[in-house]
Amino acid sequence: MHRRLLAVLVPLAVLLVTALGVPLSVTVAEREMQETYVDRLGDVGRFASLAETALSTGRTEALHHELTRYHKLYGIPVALIDTSGTVLLGPAGAYQEAARAEPTLSRIVTAALAGARSEPSWEWAPWNDSALVVAEPVGRDSEVVGAVVTISDLSKTRERILVRWARLAGLGLLPLIALTAVAWPVSAWVLRPVRKLDTATSRISAGDLTIRADAQAGPVELRRLAESFNTMMDAVENAAQRQRAFVSDASHQLRNPLTSLRLAVESLEAHLRPEGNGRQVYDVAVDELKAMQRMLNSLQASARMESMRTASPVDLDEVLATRVDRWRALTARAGQTLAVDVPPGLRLLEPPGGLGSILDELISNALRLSDAQVVQVTARVAPGGAGAGRGNGAAAGGAVTITVRDDGQGIDVSERAKALRRFWRSPRHQNVPGTGLGLAICADLVGAAGGELRLEEGLPRPDGSGHGFAAVIALPVVPQVASSSGAPARSPV
């Protein structure tokens, strides 16, 4: 995260250095070029004055010697030309060779022969390779008889500009490097508590209400935020604990009076009169007391299971090894058939309270509520975490989907979402023993492990009238741990 802060600070520093450095660099380049132009302008002005005297007196040897010596000394071709452009004095060969490479020469010379001093022909940018052409007319107004022209190679001048620019860039990078050196540890110090707070919130969203943020590190504002966060989590955890404690204590405290009441009601059976509707009222009272006892048992079980918020890896083979035989016995007693199709070696994240208890509840629903002939249990691996509800970190390698299907009555699509709510029961099952808590508790526990419980269409009914009921559990995959023999254990079914 501190990289994000640097990603903001560094461009700002670069913008600041650029805003200060670029105008300064431009000024340096322009000043260097202007000094060169002024020097050349002074030279051609002096030569033009000498040329005017030499042409008027006919003594040109000294001027020719001066022009040649200037070229040898500075490497700058300089020549006196007449109105036709012919070189009169100076190093003609060097001048003509330089003139062929300079497209602006004719324009500047024409202006000079017309009696006007031309504007500079150079470009100050270091990457431009044009020469500096300076021409000075010899004579006055309409009496111009020629011009003195210099063609200066600016490569060395541009090299000096580049060197100065490099020095300026180096000086500009110093504050940027200093800023980065300071911002990196400071941003790490500031954002480290934020990372820890983010980790804490992720674990809390997974169901661990005991985690707390670090309130001793970072700036004062972040420490206050962490303290407020911890205070809030203390209140949330205490509220959740009080709620579970209330449900558990209330159901426990009601158990004894309810048992005593049931015994008292059942003791009245011997005093019932044959005539009248006393037997019917007695049966209703006993059934209601049994339903209340089942409700209290479910509430106590819910409080116990919800208090366990830690998911752990488990081998699906081991879970089935302790359950399948009992499921077969229960389905055989009810006249049903159990089919299990589970590949070996599946390892997944087990919900709090145990995966076996959740599968027991789903099998029990299929036996009690569906009037099914076939109950099928299957498991498959869905790649890429498909089906996992909360994106648990273990789901990066995929999810294991365990499906319990039957070919019974099924449930309408409109009722599937309601079936995962607490205390909801289908109108068809009002007279069937149950509390309406089983699926809701299972969905909560599966969600606490980073998975998802959903209801879908089951197996086709034998009479072709529709489909039965299916409950699908999707849980994150955990990498398989090889046994001592180097191969995963085989499934017991």
From TrEMBL:
SUPFAM superfamilies: ATPase domain of HSP90 chaperone/DNA topoisomerase II/histidine kinase, HAMP domain-like, Homodimeric domain of signal transducing histidine kinase. One of its GO terms (molecular function) is phosphorelay sensor kinase activity. It is an enzyme of class 2 (transferase). The chain crosses the membrane at residues 165-191. It catalyses: ATP + protein L-histidine = ADP + protein N-phospho-L-histidine. Its EC number is 2.7.13.3. The keyword NADP does not apply. Residues 188-241 form the HAMP domain. Pfam families: HAMP, HATPase_c, HisKA. This is histidine kinase. Keywords: Kinase, Membrane, Phosphoprotein, Transferase, Transmembrane, Transmembrane helix, Two-component regulatory system. It is found in: Cell membrane. PROSITE patterns: HAMP (PS50885), HIS_KIN (PS50109). PANTHER family: SENSOR HISTIDINE KINASE TRCS, SENSOR HISTIDINE KINASE YKOH. Residues 249-479 form the Histidine kinase domain. Its main location: membrane.
